[in-house]
Amino acid sequence: MLSQGLAPVWRADAELLLLGSFPGQASLAAAQYYAHPRNSFWPLVAALIQQPDLPQLPYAERLETLKQHRVALWDVVDRCVRPGSLDSDIREATPTQLADLVARLPHLRAIGCNGGLAHRQARAALPACQVPLIALPSSSPAMASLSFAAKRERWLALLAPLRS
Fold it and tell me: What pLDDT score was predicted for residue 164?
């Protein structure tokens, strides 16, 4: 069955765009980005924006906090067939209109790609992109080869210098 992704979260003054691949089953069911309790996206972003309570905030407040910190959020796949939550399960993918969103973000300094598929798809969608496309280790619990501490270290090393 074809599934529809989530709408982008952004404000025109965003300086960082974080891109995932496509929402997993828990996220689709909750209609929330990174809803799986073992996904480390929200704790990673909390470290990045230096707001430790971010993961505990109600979802709408988390999104508003991202926008206040000039962070936008979206996925590279708009619709697809995905029987599970693994990126390798994605079939019949229709990409999002990523170039259109990027064109609406004149202050964008970087695009952080949460995982390999997001990075590959972003490069394909934005071949002449003028801002860095940064490959980040996936926040997914399926990416078990790196501990949370190692993911946190890599996210901060790659993104924190762009936030100052």
Answer: 59
DSSP state of 107: T
Per the residue annotation, which of 5, 21, 24, 39 is the catalytic one?
Answer: 39
Beta-bridged to residue 80, according to DSSP, are 3
114 is catalytic: no
Per DSSP, which regions of the chain are E strands? 2-4, 16-20, 71-75, 77-81, 91-95, 110-114, 133-136
Phi/psi of residue 160, nearest 5 degrees: -60, -40
Rounded Cα distance between 100 and 20, Å, is: 17
Token pair in block for residue 102: 């990027």
Q: How far is Cα 60 from Cα 32, in angstroms, rounded to an integer?
A: 9
Cα–Cα distance, 78 to 48 (Å, whole number): 26
- Sign for the CA dihedral angle at 6, 129, 67, 11 comes to negative
> For residue 15, which of 67, 77, 75 has the smallest C-alpha distance?
67
Q: In what order do the strands lie in the sheet with 133-136?
A: 71-75, 16-20, 110-114, 133-136
In which element (H, E) is residue 49 found? helix 41-49
Element (H, E) at 102: helix 98-103
What is the mean pLDDT of the segment spanning 35-41? 95
- Supply the pLDDT for residue 3: 93
Work out the average pLDDT over 111-120. 96
